[in-house]
Design a protein that fits this description.
InterPro entries: FN3_dom, FN3_sf, Ig-like_dom, Ig-like_dom_sf, Ig-like_fold, Ig_I-set, Ig_sub, Ig_sub2. This protein has 1 helix and 35 strands. By secondary structure, the protein is mainly β.
Length: 514
């Protein structure tokens, strides 16, 4: 823009005048035809004048040199051609475009379900399993839709009326032999996901499986319960189609009043509320499918404590000992007898004390009884349940009498133990320091015990407080208390007894203080 003021815009000429002006040069250019009368071009319908802008533009648009198009037919609108020397009409301002509305971002639907697989196939149905999609979207997951299509067809049909949230679904009411394509779609408020599809169609047919009983390990051995206990056993099995299950005992059907049997597609439950000894025995389980079968045996043993032993009696009493005998109990409690427990009771205290446990024989010997006491005895029997409720008691008692005995000491031959003195360890030369007490040692043997005499420079040492002489178990010692220079010399130890004498000597040197 420049600093000059733009001239005011002129009003456009009427449309009819513009069209006449445009038609004038056309008539001049056309060839003159004498016979044909001249026809004036029909005026075009007037058009509405555009409203003048409220504020004139700063500069008029630059004129263009291109000629305006000339209409060839009457009644057609012609583009006005500006006359020579006339100012160009002002350009019309374009109408302002409406602002576009901002579109809200669309919520993404959930992603495809994962790990679609067939879990089980029967003669008229099959079961699918899958995993939830990784992305559920902002709106969350409403559920899944399962669709099926027969092989060779493109007609997909939904098998569930409304979406469901489970990741397992069984499609029923199918025909055996059909091949079914299947797909699963995750659905939410924002839309449906890409469907998860099985690569191969599912063949609807019964998958046969031979019957097989899976007997638990603890039931492969004898199953032992006590009288009055409940028996609750579950035994799993397998087989397709669902096998027929039957129980028997000794070839006869079970008594349903005492034994309850409940069968499912995968196991059978054997239940007795309160077991009795009559429930013991071998039960046969049979699982059968169209002639194919599998059998297993369940051995149940119901036990209780045994009865007491029979015919307990004292066989013999001698010195400090008693011998007992008995016979096994009449009733062993439906279990093997593990052993017997023997107890004694003295008449003074009246208390029972166990002397033997788990005695496996029907006889025993009891020792270390006290002289002068009277004893009673009883025996319990024992099986896997424990001890019998009562014991067998011996009818008699055992009295341990005092016996007269004379002590005769053993005669030991006399041995001559006389021996003259003999030093086994001699004296050794020593050097000591003035003012520090010292000891001289030696050892001697002999019988009778020899008399010990100490000498210094061949002079006997008598009762002198400076010297202390001792003898203990043949070890002789002489203590010289705070020796001085005159205590040095040769010391002799002499041993004397009626059979002889012996002596040893040593030299003692006393040095001055350092």
């Amino acid at each position: 823009m420049t600093g000059k003021t733009a001239p005011p815009a002129k009003k456009p000429a009427p449309a009819a005048a513009k069209k006449k002006a445009a038609a004038a040069p056309k008539e001049e250019a056309a060839p003159k035809e004498e016979a044909a009368p001249k026809e004036e071009a029909a005026p075009a319908p007037a058009t509405e004048e555009p409203p003048a802008p409220e504020h004139p533009p700063e500069q008029p648009p630059a004129p263009t040199d291109e000629p305006a198009p000339i209409p060839t037919e009457a009644g057609a609108e012609a583009t006005p051609v500006p006359a020579e020397g006339s100012p160009d009409p002002p350009a019309e301002l374009p109408a302002p475009a409406p602002e576009p509305e901002l579109e809200k971002p669309k919520e993404e639907p959930p992603s495809c379900p994962l790990s679609l697989a067939v879990e089980e196939v029967t003669e008229n149905s099959f079961t699918l399993t899958w995993k939830a999609p990784e992305q559920l979207g902002r709106a969350g997951l409403d559920g899944y839709v399962v669709e099926i299509c027969k092989d060779g067809s493109s007609d997909w049909k939904a098998v569930n009326q409304e979406p469901f949230l489970s990741t397992r679904y069984t499609i029923p009411n199918l025909s055996s032999g059909d091949r079914i394509h299947v797909r699963v779609t995750a659905v939410s408020a924002s839309g449906a996901s890409v469907p998860a599809t099985l690569e191969q169609p599912v063949l609807i047919r019964e998958i046969l499986q031979l019957p097989k009983i899976r007997m638990p390990r603890h039931l492969r051995e004898t199953y032992i319960r006590r009288v009055g206990d409940a028996v609750n056993i579950m035994i799993p099995f397998q087989g397709k189609p669902q096998p027929e299950v039957s129980w028997s005992k000794g070839g006869q059907p079970l008594d349903t009043k005492r034994i309850n049997i409940r069968n499912t597609a995968r196991d059978t439950i054997f239940y007795i509320r309160q077991a009795q000894r009559g429930d013991s025995g071998k039960y046969e389980l049979t699982v059968q499918i169209n002639g194919a079968e599998d059998k297993a045996t369940l051995d149940i043993q119901v036990v209780e404590p045994p009865g007491p032993p029979q015919n307990l009696k004292l066989v013999d009493v001698w010195g400090f000992n008693v011998a007992l005998e008995w016979t096994p109990p009449v009733d062993n409690g439906n279990s093997e007898i593990k052993g017997y427990r023997v107890q004694k009771s003295d008449k003074k205290s009246g208390k029972w004390f166990t002397v033997l446990e788990r005695c496996t024989r029907t006889s025993c010997t009891i020792s270390d009884l006290i002289i002068g006491n009277t004893y009673s005895f009883r025996v319990f029997s024992e099986n896997i349940c424990g001890l019998s409720d009562s014991a067998a008691t011996a009818s008699g008692v055992a009295y341990i009498e005092k016996t007269k005995t004379t002590y005769q000491p053993e005669k030991i031959p006399q041995r001559d133990m006389m021996e003259p003195p003999k030093f086994t360890q001699p004296l050794t030369d020593r050097t000591t320091t003035r003012g520090y007490s010292t000891h001289l040692f030696c050892s001697v043997r002999g019988f009778p015990q020899p008399k010990i005499i100490w000498l210094k420079n061949q002079m006997e040492i008598r009762e002198d407080p400076k010297y202390i002489a001792l003898i203990d178990q043949g070890v002789c010692s002489l203590e010289i208390r705070k020796p001085g220079p005159f205590d040095g010399g040769v010391y002799t130890c002499k041993a004397v007894n009626p059979l002889g004498e012996a002596s040893v000597d040593c030299r003692l040197d006393v040095k001055g203080e350092i």
